[in-house]
């Protein structure tokens, strides 16, 4: 009986041993490394930048019109012609005024002869002094009448008030011109005035003589030199911006009044540490990056600053020369093993609606 009990105990032990051996789990191998792309932490020249939008205006501009109601006798300009100050643009009918001047001129000549005759008689005491004074007064009235007639005649000659370029002709010979009727326009377009608004933080960077670069969508890739001529004396209390006027040389007459132009303004130029913006990993209310070590990465909190297209300034947390992960961050955690699959290839260019479509 004791032998049977011993055999039972031995069988139970053998069964338990076999069962434990059959259900034991296999040992796991090391986790595979995550492929990532990296980019260097580097220094670049940065500055705070704003783009101001302005409108081109003529240095001088006027609508040419008549000050009297009269028939247009002739026009003396072509559309788009350059004219000089005082050049005749339009001649209105003036026969009546020309005749009136002849009469006034003859009356003045008569009065002057009479004054001269009375002066001789007054020297001989042959005429009263009061008579001579009356005749002198009549002579002065004749002079004023002639000047009035000459002014009326001049009103029939419409001339350019300054050097410039005339616009389209708005009237034809034979038409009746009235006060306010626009005959044409004149613009002095060299140089041009560019008026724009800038934030008040740029006030210390703008003063008379400051050099700027302006661009226009009409001339893609070109820049135009501009010089600040005036900074307004007041800051808008609502927008906290200030009006600035710059002058742009336009000797070839390529720029025209009313065109939209942009001006790039820079301030706070500095050397700063930058990394690709896509390397930033939001962690709660903070921002971090995965810093590459020897085969592993560590999650490092950083303080960011200004942003430029595709890149961000790092104020604290990184030093120049290290490497950060830009692609593959979603598969990482602090301490993950990684393998470098390549370098960051740069940012995607911004969408340009004016570019040719891809064939």
Structure description:
This protein has 359 residues and is an alpha+beta fold. Among the domains are: 86 residues, conserved putative lor/sdh protein from methanococcus maripaludis s2 fold, CATH 2.40.420; 92 residues, Beta Barrel (Elongation Factor Tu (Ef-tu), domain 3); 62 residues, Helix Hairpins (Orthogonal Bundle), CATH 1.10.287. It has 3 helices and 19 strands. Strands 2-9-12-11-10-13 form a 6-stranded antiparallel beta barrel. The chain has a 4-stranded antiparallel β-sheet with strand order 6-5-3-8, with no helix packed on it. It has a 3-stranded mixed β-sheet with strand order 18-1-19, with no helix packed on it. Helix 2 packs antiparallel against helix 3. The longest helix is centred in the N-terminal third of the chain and has 29 residues. It starts with a helix and ends in a 16-residue tail after the last strand.
- What is the C-level CATH assignment of one domain? Mainly Beta
The radius of gyration is: 45 Å
Number of helices: 3
- So what's the overall shape? rod-shaped
In terms of per-residue confidence, which ranges show pLDDT below 50 for 5 or more consecutive residues? 1-30
Give the number of DSSP strands: 19
Major sheet: 6 strands, antiparallel, barrel
Q: For the largest beta sheet, what order do the strands appear in spatially?
A: 2-9-12-11-10-13
The CATH superfamily of one domain bears the name Efflux pump adaptor protein, beta barrel domain
Order of helices and strands: HEEEEEHHEEEEEEEEEEEEEE
- Estimate the helix proportion, in percent: 10-25%
- The second-level CATH architecture of one domain is Beta Barrel
Strand content: 35-45%
Mean pLDDT: 84
Q: Which class best fits the helix and strand makeup?
A: alpha+beta
Question: What is the straight-line distance between the termini?
Answer: 96 Å
Q: What fold name stands as the CATH topology of one domain?
A: Elongation Factor Tu (Ef-tu), domain 3
């Amino acid at each position: 009986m004791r032998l049977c009990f011993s055999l039972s105990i031995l069988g139970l032990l053998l069964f338990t041993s076999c069962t434990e051996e059959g259900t034991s789990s296999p040992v796991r191998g090391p986790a595979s490394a995550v492929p990532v792309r990296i980019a260097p932490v580097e220094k670049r020249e940065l500055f705070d930048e704003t783009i101001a939008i302005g409108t081109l205006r003529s240095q001088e501009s006027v609508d040419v019109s008549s000050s009297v109601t009269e028939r247009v006798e002739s026009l003396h300009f072509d559309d788009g012609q350059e004219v000089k100050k005082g050049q005749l643009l339009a001649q209105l009918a003036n026969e009546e005024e020309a005749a009136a001047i002849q009469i006034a001129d003859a009356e003045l000549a008569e009065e002057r002869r009479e004054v001269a005759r009375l002066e001789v008689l007054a020297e001989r005491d042959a005429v009263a002094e009061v008579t001579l004074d009356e005749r002198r007064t009549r002579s002065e009235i004749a002079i004023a009448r002639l000047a009035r007639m000459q002014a009326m005649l001049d009103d029939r000659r419409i001339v350019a008030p300054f050097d410039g370029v005339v616009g389209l002709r708005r009237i034809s010979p034979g038409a009746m011109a009235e006060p306010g009727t626009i005959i044409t326009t004149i613009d002095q377009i060299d140089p041009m005035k560019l008026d724009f608004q800038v934030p008040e933080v740029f006030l210390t960077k703008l003063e008379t003589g400051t050099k700027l670069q302006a661009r226009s969508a009409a001339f893609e890739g070109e820049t135009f030199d501009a010089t600040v001529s005036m900074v307004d004396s007041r800051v808008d209390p609502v927008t906290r911006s200030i009006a600035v006027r710059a002058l742009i040389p336009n000797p070839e007459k390529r720029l025209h009044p009313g065109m939209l132009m942009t001006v790039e303004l820079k301030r706070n130029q500095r050397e700063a540490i930058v990394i690709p913006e896509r390397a930033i990993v939001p962690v709660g209310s903070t921002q971090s990056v995965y810093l590459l070590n020897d085969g592993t990465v560590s999650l490092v909190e950083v303080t960011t600053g200004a942003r430029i297209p595709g890149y961000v300034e790092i104020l604290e947390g990184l030093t120049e020369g290290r490497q950060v992960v830009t692609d593959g961050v979603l598969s990482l955690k602090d301490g993950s093993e990684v393998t470098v699959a390549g370098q960051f290839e740069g940012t995607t260019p911004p969408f340009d609606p004016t570019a040719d479509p891809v064939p």
